[in-house]
Amino acid sequence: MSNLAPKRLFSKRPILAFSLIVLLKSFLTWMVVFGGPNWTTLLKELPFALIVFCLIEWFATKRKLVYYLSANLLMTAILFAVLMYYKYYGVIVTYVALNQVNQVTAVSNSVFSLMDPYYLLVFIDIIVMGYYLIRRQKGQYWKAASQKKVSRRVLATLFGISLVLCLFNIVPNRASMNEIVKAEQMGILNYEAYTIFSNKDQELVNPSEITQATIDELKQINKPAAPKLWNAASGKNLIIIQMESFQNFLINLKIDGQEITPNMNKLANESYYFNNFYQGVGQGNTSDAEFIVNTSYYIPPNGAATQVYPKKELPSLPRLMQEHGYDTATFHTNIVDFWNRGELYKALGFNRYYDKKFFGEEDSVFFAASDEVLYAKTAAELEKMDQSDKPFYAQVISMTAHHPFTIPERKYKMGLPERYEDTFVGDYVRAQNYADYALGLFIDDLKQRGIWDNSVVVLYGDHLGLPIYSLDRDDKELMQEIYGREYGSADMIHIPLIITAPGITQPEVLTQLGGQVDILPTVANLLGFSLNKQIHFGQDILNNTTVNLLPQRYYLPTGSFVSSEELFLSGSGYEDGTHLPLPGASAVSLDSQDQFNRALELLKLSDSYVSQLPNWK
């Protein structure tokens, strides 16, 4: 019996022991990501580990145990990253996301808030083995015993079978569009290897073939000869306020009779309020929203726009405004290096930016000055800009209602019902209540300074705040209470858009479909700026109201889109995809193959166009 003891298994047959360890960790990861392991998990995850361990047995003559421990640590790190990333983004992390590792320390609170204690079970074996290695006598015995050779014939057979199984899992599933489906079909470790070795440059469309007429045809846009509200806001300032993590359900929400966002509600009820509006962001979250709104292009297929397109001279809203005599600036309380914003602002052509150096660390929340400081100092600066002989365009990026939404008690502006206390949803609601309070101060300040009445003000949510993947049972029950039904994927990406301009807009709820990509052409129409010479993928949603098509990436699988009737989630392709009616829709058409094809073509054209733009100098 002593020969069967765990320490004998580890020391005499490390290939078996470490394979078992990796398999158990894979089971844990599958439980979180795919809802639980099944018998195929064994055939999808174990062969990859065996290939690695066979190579160690074959080539390692000394320090074999070190190689085993290193390989185990690497695979553990991959599986742990998959767990954590899925909990927020709902996607399978790949090596491309390593480009954002330098952002992690700035949002460490967000990272730790996603962690369930049992995730740390993936590291227990490393701790135990580390303990044995530290104890010199046991460590020396273990190292010596593990040098025992495995039969070359056995290794060759095991390696060959494992390689065939890996290829059998990978090759037939390469065409799957849905990244989660693909990872489940291939196995997580196989999928991670596949993304590295299959990386190839995207085939680009010739720029001469990318015309506005082609884009409008794909979107089925028929532009009116006399657009509604064309040039109605000529010469007015433009203030675009990007609300951190602000989802649409907050508008007019009351919890036990308590209004959560009274200032946003007042604006929505006095202005143009688009209640069928959706995000288009990806890995870059807030910075992606800045990119989309200022360019009317889609996010890149891999990585944040600020990391993929930072050197491009982007046709943009700031450049368009400058051509018409406007001053332009953007305001954000964090450091400009966060998400590579300094490069983004050069690419977009802003005249200048204001970041942490300007706002300081006064009244700091999370990693920058609070929204109250943001709005107070911004209002003073806008007054200076307003006194010049130029109108201005200012984009203001709020921050305090940032994930994980655990604002300090000094910022509490409301009490929560007991059932909301110490919940993710409760923290979110309270943070957004504070963000709304600070916004109200900003609006009052702009009015007192005489800026409000001479401005077009656009407000929208930058991205979701409550991913369905991050909610526990209590949170799901609270969201069901709020919605009166199950909280779903369409709700998650549903954000508000409000456009207000004194003397121009009026109280109206506009139900036409829109997305962040549509803000630039809509604003251009109000200001009377032609886009005939500027490629754009959005549409003026004040005039093109009957049809729209919003391709989605990252938070939803590739091939997903929002149309006027539905949210479509791709499967391996179109045929096994899921059709979800939008809020308020009674049914969906199951014949949306044409929209699926057009959405993919739009993404391809956007990727091709932006990738081939010249670099800024």
Average pLDDT taken over every residue: 89
Q: How many discrete domains?
A: 2
Please work out how many helical segments DSSP would assign.
Answer: 24
Strand-residue fraction?
A: 5-15%
Number of strands: 17
Per CATH, what is the topology of the largest domain? Alkaline Phosphatase, subunit A
CATH architect. name of the largest domain: 3-Layer(aba) Sandwich
What level of helicity do the residues show? 40-55%
Ends apart, CA distance between termini = 73 Å
Largest sheet: 9 strands, mixed
Tell me the CATH superfamily of the largest domain: Alkaline Phosphatase, subunit A
Rg from C-alpha positions?
Answer: 27 Å
Name the shape in a single word: globular
User: Based on helices, strands and strand pairing, what is the structural class?
Assistant: alpha/beta
Describe, in short, the structure shown.
The chain is α/β, with parallel strands linked by helices and 617 residues long. It is globular, with a radius of gyration of 27 Å. The N and C termini lie far apart (73 Å).
